[in-house]
Amino acid sequence: MSFASDTVEALESGVFLANSELEPDTLETFEDLTEFYARFEFSGRPPGEGDLERVRAIRTPLRRLFSATRDEAVPLVNAILAEQHALPRLVRHDGRDWHIHGTSDDAPLHARILVETAMAMIDVIRADEMTRLDRCAMDDCEGVVLDMSRNRSRKYCSPTCTNRAAVHAYRARQAAED
Ligand SMILES: [Zn+2]
Ligand SMILES: [Zn+2]
User: What is the pTM of this model?
Assistant: First the structure.
């Protein structure tokens, strides 16, 4: 199963955003938001007054959506699309081939993120690929892992957790040898 590139991008930015609220919070300043906007190459109205608080506020709902079962995710997706008055259309811009935008380009950033994530989740749900989204394998981590790899090799939500897991495994081997 392969997903369209705009689906994958929306999931990547949504998961990144959802995980940013874990300690240490990585979306605390307007600069953090501007960096997030640039990193995931959002188009449309750039972040402005009030957007930081509104984007921060959708992180918990996004984490809930990504952590949901397939059947639990359906009403969450439908609610987002209804509340944000999603109106999908095909667009081509900035050298990018046809892809979907679900809101007008001047909709507030948090609304665009919500709708794009919800539309990406439509694909995931229809394809019955919810296992692409999982909880981080690190015991004490609530992070969301997005695994779009062919061999399903991703277990940890971040390089930090990957490194911590390696340290734990090393210590366990040392303890076994002693
Ligand atoms: Zn676009
Ligand atoms: Zn983690």
Answer: 0.93
What's the pLDDT tens digit per position in 106-120? Answer: 899 999 999 999 999
Spatial separation of the C-alpha atoms in residues 19 and 86, rounded to whole Å: 25
Tokens 């390089």, located at residue:
159
**All domains in the chain, ordered by first residue:** 5-177 (1.10.3300.10)
Please, which residues have CB within 8 angstroms of residue 73's CB and are 6 or more apart in sequence?
Answer: 65, 121, 124, 125, 130
User: Rounded to whole angstroms, how far apart are CA atoms 10 and 16?
Assistant: 10
pLDDT in tens, 77-108: 999 999 999 999 999 998 999 999 999 988 99
Ligand nearest to the CA of 144: 2
How far does residue 148's CA lie from ligand 2's centre (Å)?
17
- Report residue 117: phi and psi, to 5°: -65, -45
How far is the centre of ligand 2, averaged over its atoms, from the C-alpha of 158 (Å)? 6
Helix, strand, coil percentages for the chain (3-state, nearest 5) = 55, 10, 35
